[in-house]
Amino acid sequence: MSRLHLFDLDGTLLVGSAAPVEISRQLGLVAEIAEIEREFVAGRLRPVEYAERVRVLWAALTVADVTAAFEGAPWMAGIREAWAAIRARGEYVAVVSLSPSFFVERLLGWGAHTAHGSVFPSVPFASPIDPAGILDAGGKVKIADSLCESFGLTRTDCIAYGDSLSDAELFAAVPVSVAVNADHHVSQLASHTYTGRDLREACEIVRAAP
User: Fold this and answer.
1) In a designed cystine with 12, which of 8, 86, 94, 190 is the match (CB 3.0 to 4.6 A)?
2) CA geometry: angle at 142 spanning 39 and 159, to 5°?
3) At what angle do helices 79-88 and 199-208 cross, to 10 degrees?
4) Entry's SUPFAM superfamilies (predicted)?
5) What predicted TM-score, i.e. pTM, was given to this entire model?
6) Using one digit for the tens of pLDDT, what is the confidence trace for 148-163?
């Protein structure tokens, strides 16, 4: 039986950072995104409100800025190799993130079968946020269910990798999970924990488990 590996992006594939932070860094807006992030983590902003705030913050964003943010981000080592090993076993790789789809979908080029993020307007922005396209924690579970149906799998065939509160619902929904450089919201829910900077090591924990 195949398996579906579901990877979070911010704080999981990215070490100690998030896509919105790296995008804002390219625009010289580190302090501004830090304040928005604090409000979001504190629960004062819903995912849609967060998206609307960063859409305004990134009014001058260009495709070149997104490329620079992606290429300069602090990625975990071994992502391409870990995913190639998963694919070689006939298993599936998905990235599911609350971050903007225009950033998340670039990971298709690294070997993910599918990548899902909050749907933002195309860059440069010429239209407002559509609230229906913005993901929340529950949306990750819905995407996982949809992918299982597409691949002929069930939740029992899923492995989730994540680091924070936005991953808690998914961790609770699947039988195997890996808390990667995680906070207390998911470390206590996870089947396994990993602290480090190499995704191959995190994936090996699952592969080697009885």
Assistant:
1) 8
2) 90
3) 30
4) HAD-like
5) 0.96
6) 999 999 999 999 999 9
